[in-house]
Amino acid sequence: MIDKLNLIPMKGRSMRNVARMAITALLAVSSGWAQMMMHDTDQSDSSNGKMQTLMDSKTQAGYFIGPVVKFGEVKGKLSTSMGARAALLLDHHISIGLAGYGMMGRTVLAQVSPDTTRYLHLGYGGAEIGYIFQPQKLLNFSANLLIGGGSVMWQDQNRYGYSMHNNSTWGSSFFAVEPSVGVGLNITSHLRLIVGASYLITNGLSETWISDKDVTGFEGSVGLLFGRF
Fold first, then answer.
1. Three-state DSSP state, 161
2. Alpha helices in the chain (DSSP H)
């Protein structure tokens, strides 16, 4: 059931490994921000008594939003997901926002009977933080980290698309961490093409019909972002 989200197991070695990977990736992404801010701090502020802050009136704010298509594997079968990213940009480098993706089409999980097919549906999303290297260059590079959760479910349908009985659906929730890297191409000053690769890590799927190992893995992506870069 979807209400299992509050019961996701957070104990054991697997959860500690996921936490370590998430913290390591988060530190790697945020280190670029910290170094940039420290470098831009005016040393004269301390001498004239002005308070030094992480962000000041010189910080430039922008944004982006756009669709993203992802390609990966679920239970050994090719899957395609459609989603979107939206974020606030600080000084052209730091992105802080949200991202979410849902599996497109219907992935066959099993053939229950000659007239009944069991389909798999999956979606996930969460908060995303990133750092863009040399954003003003024609080609630029980015590193991102998504932390959130998702749900997966199966549904029995006949050949006409109708559920066969009242208990024809079943769902399960999971915790998700997804570090990613990307290459950006500045098409215009307000349009950027992103080609990337990521590694989705899930924790909490332990059903007989699906587990973490069926979902965890590499993904490729293509996105088109609009905004003020």
1. coil
2. 13-40, 44-47, 212-215
Asked whether residue 71 is domain-assigned, the answer is yes
Residue 125 lies in a domain: yes
> Dihedral of the CA atoms 19, 172, 210, 104 (nearest 10)?
-100
The token duo for 34 is 């910290």
d(CA 34, CA 138): 24
Contact 26, 180 (CB under 8 A): no
Which of 124, 172, 168, 125 lies closest to 152, judged by CA?
A: 172
Which residue pairs, CB below 8 angstroms and at least 24 apart, start in 22-26? Answer: 22/145, 22/147, 22/177, 25/145, 25/177, 25/179, 26/129, 26/145, 26/147
pLDDT, tens digit, for every residue of 70-86? 999 998 889 999 999 99
Q: Is residue 45 domain-resident?
A: no
Query: pTM score, two decimals?
Result: 0.74
